[in-house]
């Protein structure tokens, strides 16, 4: 996954219980998924609000509820 519309980006190929380990805690506003299925969470370890995605997804804005709030990601 990478940032969909500019700004910092990072390729993620595994789950992270805390996105701060890769410098992305509370910093995701958009993303692209290249075939990955998973779920972002607003709390770490995974919990709280969940944002699910699957397949090839391009989300240009995650919405006000989730903007800059993801703290963990689980890939399936």
Short description:
The chain is mostly beta strands and 76 residues long. The chain is built from no helices and 5 strands.
- Rg over alpha carbons: 11 Å
Structural class of the helices, strands and pairings?
Answer: mainly beta
Pick out the low-confidence regions.
none
Strand order, largest beta sheet: 3-2-5
Q: Portion of residues in helices?
A: under 10%
Backbone shape: globular
- Specify the biggest β-sheet: 3 strands, antiparallel
Query: Oligomeric form of this entry?
Result: single chain
Could you give the distance between the termini?
13 Å
- What is the H/E order? EEEEE
Query: What is the typical, i.e. mean, pLDDT?
Result: 89
Sheet-strand content, in percent, reads 25-35%
Keyword list:
single chain; 0% helix; three-stranded antiparallel beta sheet; mainly beta
Description of the structure:
The chain is mostly beta strands. The protein has strands at residues 31-34, 38-43, 47-53, 56-59, 72-75. A 3-stranded antiparallel β-sheet has the order 3-2-5, with no helix packed on it. The model has no long low-confidence stretch (mean pLDDT 89).
What topology emerges from the helices and strands here?
Elements lengths: L30 E4 L3 E6 L3 E7 L2 E4 L12 E4 L1
Antiparallel strand pairs: 1-4, 2-3, 2-5
